[in-house]
Amino acid sequence: MNEAVRDLVYLVAASLFIFGIKGLTHPRTAVRGNLIAALGMLLAVVVTLAKQGLHWELIAVGLVVGSILGAVLAIWIQMTAMPQLVALFNGFGGGASALVAGAYLLQAEESAPDVLVATALSGLIGAVTFSGSMVAFGKLQGLRFVRDVRFAGQQFANGVLLVGSLALAWWLVQRPDLGWIYVLIVLLSLALGVGLVISIGGADMPVVIALLNSYSGLAAAATGFVVHNNILIISGALVGASGVILTRIMCVAMNRSLPNVLFGTMGGDAGAVAGADEVYATVKSTTPEEVAMLLESARYVVIVPGYGMAVAQAQHAVSDLAELLTEQGIRVEFGIHPVAGRMPGHMNVLLAEADIPYEVLKDLDEINATIEQADVAIVLGANDVVNPAARDDPNSPIAGMPIINVDKAKTVVVIKRSLAPGFAGIPNPLFAKENTLMLFADGRKAVMDILTALKEG
Fold first, then answer.
1. Would you say residue 265 has pLDDT above 80?
2. Residue 302 in 3-state DSSP?
3. CATH superfamily, domain at 276-456
4. What whole-number distance in Å separates Cα of residue 179 and Cα of residue 169?
5. Segment 117-155, tens digit of pLDDT
6. What does the pLDDT read at residue 186?
7. How far is Cα 182 from Cα 170, in angstroms, rounded to an integer?
8. Can you tell me the distance from the alpha carbon of 328 to that of 323, in angstroms, rounded to the nearest whole number?
9. The pTM is what?
10. Every domain range in the chain assigned CATH 3.40.50.1220
């Protein structure tokens, strides 16, 4: 294929990527945006495969293996495990970039200095992304050996690994004939990725996932310079830039500092936190029938979903409840915290799946502006994002994190299996507030029981 024609198609594909990302900014247009971006990638792949001199046998093997793995993951992965899958995708993207850059270095007879710089950066960023994403996957999966590991001099060790990787990168540019330097860069960077993520708590994982997504894009862009592929440079840069923007949004939502995320210093030590027995001394439980009575007399109901809703697969039951209340003339809105669940947009995806109108999904600032008018606020499986300790206790590990102020509603109903803490691992004073009632049950069953009680009057 003529190079000019190929670049023209790449330009069209890049434009489709941009329109696709624009569509992903709102739930109403997210599906269309995803399809537009996928079309752009299809064009890019087809045009790239039209290049002469490719090893079709290896490409066919890769397509078959990748398709089988993709199909298996798509069928077996539950919605609750989607954050882990995103972490794996980020890691695989970074790892692939490091491998491609390394392969090019080995086969190239001579490379320009700018290509060597891109090769070194691809190996560094790709390896950090791979190992960091694997640690993030382990944390999200609840693996014990990766839980908040800290030791004296940890940040100094990370600094040494970073400086060592950069020094080796400079050496590689000077001596590209020494391929083992690239191997050392990758090994040090793998250790750096582990060091940057291993100390970060589970509550901060949405921010880390967004940052690792950005890293995977930057690694791909660097690899694009190595293999002289314009669309890889463009797509990698788009992913990297959008990932940084998303990371910034997540940092604001959780009152975290972007430099702390970049250098793996999130989730540091906090002051003394009250014990669970002390906090939960005045917890009051309720029944589905009592909750139904509260809802029957309400005029405005706010529902705040969290990860527990995802675990219980309660989104369709919640949709039925919201529809029934609306039919009875009750105003129903959903308060969506930007980091509710285990990744950005987790709750939006689940509620969209249940066909809940986008107009009733309110972000943190919107819902907090009206929450005091709510007769009943139902918290379904959310914990840290509604914990008033973030607002009231300067010693709390989540101090300063913006929350949905459900405790300011007239009555709060918390649907939860137990009093177990959220990802931050701390008690939630909301559960013992005077205006809070605890409905201990599986999320889906609890909502179904409330629906039954409402229908029976």
1. no
2. strand
3. TPP-binding domain (3.40.50.1220)
4. 11
5. 999 999 999 999 999 999 988 888 878 777 667 777 888
6. 95
7. 11
8. 9
9. 0.78
10. 276-456
The beta-carbon contacts of 237-240 under 8 Å, at least 24 apart in sequence, are 238/14, 238/17, 238/18, 238/21, 239/213, 239/214, 240/214, 240/215
User: What tokens does 386 get?
Assistant: 């509604």
Read out DSSP for 236-262?
Answer: HHHHHHHHHHHHHHHHHHHT--HHHHH
**Mean pLDDT for the chain?**
87
Q: What are phi and psi of 333, to 5 degrees?
A: -135, 155
Q: Is residue 210 scored above 60 in pLDDT?
A: yes
Residue 35: phi and psi, rounded to 5, are -65, -40
Known catalytic residues? 384
Q: Which residue has the higher pLDDT, 345 or 450?
A: 450
| C-alpha closest to that of 406 among 429, 435, 377, 380 | 377
CA 56 – CA 63 distance, rounded (Å):
10
Is the pLDDT assigned to residue 274 strictly greater than 60? no
**Ordered strands of the 300-305 beta sheet:** 361-363, 331-336, 300-305, 376-380, 411-416, 436-440
Q: Are 199 and 150 in contact (CB under 8 A)?
A: yes
Tens digit of pLDDT for each residue in 53-89?
A: 778 888 889 889 988 988 888 788 776 677 788 888 8
CA 40 to chain centre: 24
Total count of residues recorded for the chain: 457
DSSP 377: E
Using one digit for the tens of pLDDT, what is the confidence trace for 357-400? 888 999 899 999 999 999 999 999 898 899 999 888 888 878 88
Report the pLDDT value the prediction gives residue 275, as an integer from 0 to 100.
61
Residue recorded with tokens 């992913």: 239
Between CA 238 and CA 218 the distance in angstroms is 9
- From 148, 153, 185, select the one nearest 166 (Cα to Cα): 185
| Nearest residue to 169 (alpha-carbon basis) of 243, 222, 237, 244 | 222
Q: Among residues 158, 165, 168, which one has the least CA distance to residue 188? A: 165
Query: What is the C-alpha separation between 125 and 406, in angstroms, rounded?
Result: 41
